[in-house]
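Q: Got a minute? One more chain.
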Amino acid sequence: MAKTPDTKLYDLTQEWGAGIPPWPYFPDPVVASFHRFPKDNLHSMRVDTAMHVGTHVDAPLHFNPEGWDSAEIPLDVLFGEGIVVDLSQDVSDFDIITPEMVEEKAQVREGDVLILNTGLSTIAPVGSHADEIETSLMMVVAPELVDMAQATPSPFSAKAPAPGALSPDDPTSPNYSPSGSFGDPTLASVDKGSRLLAAILEDMMEAAG
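A: Always. Here it is, folded:
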C-alpha cells in the first residue's frame, strides 16, 4: 500500500503502565521510583519488563536466527489497508482461532492488516497471582494442591497494582487482596490449564529446536 496524502493511519498502541497485561506466563512489568521528592530533590523511575508486554511487534529474529531485528524492519510493512474482524462473541479465554472462523466473518485479501477483536480488552488485566491462569495450570500439574472451594477473586481496583506485597487488610490499597489471590481463580478450569500447558510446552520445544 502506497501512503498518500489521503491515507489515514490509526495508532493501535495500548497505553503502557504497570497494569498492562503481559503474554500469559510472562512476568508482570514493574515500575518503581528510586529517587523521590522531597528527599532526593528529583524523581527517577526504574522499569523492569519482559519483551511480550502490551502492544509490540515480534521481529523475525525472535523465531529465526537469520531474521530481521526490530531496527531492520522496513516501516512500510508496518502499515497498510486493514480489516477488523469481531470474534468477541465467538471465542472465550483459551479458544484457538482458526482461518475458517475469520473467513466466515469477512473477506481477507493478501497484504491486509488483520485485526482480531477477541474481547480480551474487556477483561484484561487478568491478574498475576493465584489468578485464573495460575490456578488453571495448577489444576493440571498438581491438582492435589488446588481446593476450588477456597477460591476467591480479589476485589477489582481501578488502580494499577503497585510494586510490593499484597495487602490483606487495606481496602484502599491497589494491592488489596484478603485471600492472597490477584485476579479471579474462580474462572479456572482443567480445560484452560491443559490448553495453556500444551501451548507453553510447544513454544519451549520449538525454541529448543
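A: Residues 190-208 form the longest helix (19 residues).
Q: Perfect, thanks.
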